[in-house]
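FOLDING PROBLEM:
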Amino acid sequence: MGKLILVRHGETEYNKNRLFFGWKDPELNEKGIYQSHLAKNRLQKYEYHKIYASPLKRAYLTGEIVNYKGLEINVSEELKELNFGIFEGHSYEEILEKYPEEEKIAKDNWEEYSFKTGESPKMLQERVISFINNNLNLEDENVVLVTHWGVICTILSYYLTGGIKGYWKFKIKNGGIAVLEFRDGFVSLEGFNIGE
C-alpha cells in the first residue's frame, strides 16, 4: 500500500488578483507563506518516503516549508502548471476582451484546446501521468508532490474518473492537501483539502 500526497502551493499575488499564470513564476505572498506553514502542520500526520516539487518558485518554496522530514526535494519540470500560452498573466475579463475567439474555443473544447503557445489540459494530464508512471512506485511508498491546481486536478481526474472528464470537479485550495491511497491495484481518495 502507498499514498500519493498532493499539496497545492500557497497563494501568490496572481492568485489573489485572479490571473491566469501557469508558467509565470511569481513568489508566494505573505498569506501563501502562512498557508504553507498550515499545510506543513497537516502533512505531519503522514509518513512519506520521497518529495517532489515543481520548479516554479511558488511550489518549490511551499515544498521547502512543508517538508517536515528535511528530505531532498526532487524537482521535475513535468510537475509545472498548465501552460496557458497567450492567456498567461491576464484576467478572465482581459482574455474576453483581447482574445474572444480563443476564449470561446477554449471553453467549447476545453479538453483538447491547446492554448496558443501553450498546451491543453489533456496534454498536461499526459505529461503528469507519464511522470508518475516513470518515477513513482505508489503500491509501496508514500510520495509527496508539491505542485499546482491543474496538475492536482488532472491526477485526481485520471485516477478517480479514468480520464480528463473530472478535471473541473475538484476545488483544491491554496495550501490544500489531497491524498490518494493505492492498494492492490485500487485507488481511493483518502482525503481532500485536509484540515480545512
